[in-house]
Write a structure and sequence with these properties.
Number of domains of chain A: 3
Number of strands of chain A: 15
Strand order of the largest sheet of chain A: 4-11-10-9-8-5-6-7
Oligomer: homodimer
Structural class of chain A: alpha/beta
Strand content of chain A: 5-15%
CATH architecture of the largest domain in chain A: 3-Layer(aba) Sandwich
Helix content of chain A: 40-55%
Mean pLDDT of chain A: 90
Low-confidence stretches of chain A: 491-504
CATH class of the largest domain in chain A: Alpha Beta
Distance between the termini of chain A: 56 Å
Chain lengths: 504, 504
């Protein structure tokens, strides 16, 4: 009878002995009527105290796995389990991949996860993520509110919330929506764990395998991933300076009969482009004409740096065709994971159904905290603050891009949002650029990421300017452009390998 | 030109005018070259200040929707959008149900949502939910920890977390698991938004439409809902006093070739039954023999009131066949929405992938708060406290059931967990019982809810004893048993309608 004692384990020794004997009995290694070694000799063999073995045997007896008779010793009792027991050598590890669904086996792409990991590294200057500036977090205000809530809300703070969300927060969100010219009552709002969850729910509500979804090209890669994993064919509609090309859209509508159109009309990710007012109406009219739902994603609309943007499609839609997603993740911080959806009642009912099914409701304290933050007018103040800071950072990046400009690079000045969508020289060697910039401690997102077919965009990169401060922006762009210059022709590049100055 | 002014709206009047004219232009009601009424006359017509109209016209001009020439007045400019514009009368509301997937159209069942709503009503005595006693929430301790975290963690508190969870919390959970005799390193743990999300992810990872899943019968209705909505055939395995009938299981394994087995081995929901040690090994051996994953759900294991339960299947599994779900929702509170999964690395990678895809990560402050709560030893103290309180409430309910016993009712004493699974007289008229008890302000969950085929269990009800205090339990059971007595034969029942004493 082979027993291994691990003296560093948390499990007490007598329990280790008991468990291993128990396993041997149930796995058939110790059949019924087996005589267990006398306590004294087992104790000697294992170099433990005799009382330890006695305790182990007592435990086994309590589970009626063994019985002991004076003189006869401790005997294993019979267990029906023996019948189905297999020797370990016959037991194979599960071939898990055979059990996974196809889309799960396909989906290995953890871009967002990787970005968040990268972004954490100290010394790395990250233009890759879509993360707010942490130095602007209103920590002191939140602390005050939170402390008060412990008194005023007390236990309510940890109770379950309604599936659709904490009602006062829905009121506050309805108030925010009115400022975006969207008329939505609190009942027209369902609180979600970030707008990301809204994309996932929309996919689960609408997409049957083989359905087509139209998206801007380029667009948010998370949306492409989610729609694909739900079994959709994702087709891109090209954009220009006025946003989605509605002329091309109509042709695609007719050809592909899509399930819905996904769009980021304002300060689009990654292009930074905003859809013109005319295009917004054209898009709506096409939706009306071809009877198509529009899924509008608006995480950046409040972050304008020059003039206020055109109203969201939801504000212009007079016939309930638009499902509107938004979030606090880009204006405040990611960590609370709170976003929302607003749309027609029949659709909201389905969002609520999925919320109940998948995770019941959004974290209650986060909902209380945000509600108070908005109610007390701090949200509006905060938005004004981040607008100033982010436009300054945008300008700093534009200035740096000019200063270190490499021939062949191009970009437009975004009027709001988070990103500069930078064009690279045509003769760039992209895989080398990532490595080259990485060596200098600068990360960014490659353009292909944002294209459904992944073949285009290889001369584009997305640069985020909200997460890094102006000094980091200055340094980061300098190193990035050095990397670009060195990666535009192979010779320069070999030349360069010698004089790379790593940041860290 | 018909414009309606709403003087109570948040939108300023000039913007209301501008928006309505804009809509008329884009929807083709005001074609190009239309002459807008002079500011003065429009102001008169709308009973607004002339400057208001001027401001509105200026806005329209800024959007280059109109142009104005001295003498000529304000003229609508041409817009390509007119081409696709439709008169409102031609625009139909979307037939949304045609766009929803079949499972979404089917899934209207919001039991959990309804329970949470009911449970909120004051005056109602609810034995329906699965909610912890709010008077035990360690609010003061949490307040202290939270306040400290604002200083120590500061901004970290609102930053994004890793997809797999905040590492220190994964360490704390790994520590809790060792106490359950499960050896899992922090890396073997992925933090989720409640174990509910774990069920949803498992469904998405494993279930192809038409797959079969085996569950205990009765079992947690949420699991039935989720597996069904993923397209699974859900087949029940009967249970007895030792838990899942492994003899029946083997026959079902052979017949249905299920994708996995879902089980609540300890203090099962709703039956309160715990699987015997022998059955646990039999189940594992069957899984090994037939190469089947086991999804183990263990929300109640720590809540034992007499003797510690047998180890989880995960602790007995030596070959990585068990995926283990647990949560803080039953031991602490629901509101934070934090649970976790532990399993083989290949499977955890898929859970992480879905987490990243669907909602990025669990609310960061909640993860910090729970980690500190566990690290400082408060969690263990808290568990001891709730064990005492819940066993007292269980005994109170058992006592009340004895006191007001109706012939034909039966129940077993649960050794842990949340529920008493009460048998009703065979001649009960169930739909009348719900109404009858409801009139007295007592709610519970009907037995059918817990059966995959929904036909059985109509003489059972699930009674939760953790949410209500002993006094409410006493009163609630009294009224409930009155309702039962009156609903066992039609005559008694008509008789009773007169002397119903509503609680509220």
């Amino acid at each position: 009878m082979r027993i291994i004692i691990n003296r560093n384990a948390d499990t007490p020794v007598y329990l280790q002995i008991k468990n291993q004997v128990r396993d041997m009995i149930f796995s058939g290694i110790l059949p019924a009527d087996t005589l267990l070694p006398p306590e004294r000799s087992l104790a000697k063999e294992l170099e433990v105290n005799r009382s330890t073995v006695i305790k182990a045997y007592q435990e086994l007896k309590a589970d009626s796995l063994v019985d002991s008779h004076v003189g006869k010793g401790t005997v294993v009792l019979s267990h029906t389990v023996k019948k189905t027991a297999l020797p370990d050598s016959y037991i194979n590890p599960l071939p898990w991949y055979q059990f996974f669904t196809d889309s799960i086996n396909a989906g290995t792409d953890n871009i967002i996860g990787d970005i968040m990991a990268m972004t954490g590294d100290s010394g790395v200057i990250s233009f890759a993520g879509g993360i707010p500036a942490s130095n602007l977090y209103p920590v002191e205000i939140l602390k005050t509110i939170q402390t008060e809530l412990f008194t005023t809300a007390n236990r309510e703070l940890f109770l379950h919330s309604p599936v659709e969300g904490y009602y006062p927060l829905r009121e506050s969100i309805s108030h925010l929506l009115r400022q975006r010219q969207i008329a939505a009552s609190p009942k027209d709002v369902v609180v979600l764990s970030g707008s990301q969850q809204g994309l996932d729910f929309a996919a689960r509500i609408f997409i049957r395998t083989g359905d087509t979804v139209l998206v801007e090209e380029p667009t948010f890669f998370g949306a492409i991933q989610i729609f694909r994993s739900a079994g959709a064919r994702v087709i891109g509609v090209p954009i220009d300076q006025e946003g989605m090309r509605t002329d091309v859209l109509e042709a695609l509508l007719i050809r592909h009969k899509p399930k819905f159109i996904y769009t980021l009309p304002t300060f689009q990710n990654p292009s930074g482009v905003s859809m013109s007012l005319e295009r917004r109406y054209q898009l709506l009219n096409l939706a009306y004409q071809y009877q198509l739902p529009i899924l509008e994603d608006d995480p950046y609309g409040e972050l304008y740096y020059d003039r206020p943007p055109y109203p969201p499609l939801k504000a212009l839609d007079r016939h309930g065709y638009v499902i509107y997603l938004s979030t606090f993740s880009k204006t405040l911080f990611l960590g609370l994971r709170v976003g929302w959806v607003s749309g027609p009642p029949q659709v909201l009912a389905k969002f609520a159904h999925l919320k109940q099914l998948t995770d019941l409701h959004v974290n209650t304290p986060a909902q209380f905290l945000l509600d108070e933050f908005i109610r007390r007018g701090y949200y509006e103040k905060h938005i004004t603050l981040v607008r100033q800071e982010y436009s300054a950072r945008r300008d700093a990046m534009l200035k740096a891009l000019e200063k270190y400009k490499v021939p062949g690079t191009k970009w437009d000045k975004p009027e709001g949002g988070y990103y500069i969508w930078c064009r690279l020289p045509d003769n760039i060697i992209r895989h080398k650029l990532v490595a080259n910039a990485g060596n200098r401690g600068v990360v960014f997102l490659p353009g292909e990421t944002f294209y459904p077919d992944g073949t285009q965009g290889d001369t584009r990169i997305r640069l985020n300017y909200t997460f890094t401060n102006q000094e980091q922006i200055q340094t980061g762009i300098k190193y990035l452009m050095q990397a670009v210059r060195e990666t535009t022709s192979l010779d320069d590049n070999q030349e360069s390998e010698r004089n790379i100055k790593p940041l860290v």
